[in-house]
């Protein structure tokens, strides 16, 4: 009788993540972040993504933002972060996020953050504010306004005034940062 070694899913995930740790560009979805959380790999033994320059996060749940920031601690040279949809899947978002430890990339390297399909709710504004207050060399924040939600130029202008009214209330870590607004179009299938 031949015995087959049992592999835990967590062990497979850890090995897979180790193999990915040299990439320059990485895309993470909420499902991947959930698996990393379940495998409890976002700890001190997590590999450093020393070459990672661009990270894209797809449809991240508000409950996963802390895990995403844990991942950023292992991405010291990250320059660009793209969010394609951040949503609150349980409707219980109450408090703004805070950082006990600011990831190195925010202090020294992160130059741009993009938010696609930004609707301007409180948790999105808090997330933008978190970057503005902590990213010391941030040059650009791009906010993608969903084209399907705003039909006139006045609607778009009113939305921009509302968002900027919220974002200028706090001190920004980078005095050179510029916020740009663009229309976001749904992806083609």
Automatic annotation (TrEMBL):
Residues 104-182 form the FBD domain. The lineage of its organism: Eukaryota, Viridiplantae, Streptophyta, Embryophyta, Tracheophyta. InterPro entries: FBD, FBL13/AtMIF1-like. Pfam families: FBD. This is FBD domain-containing protein.
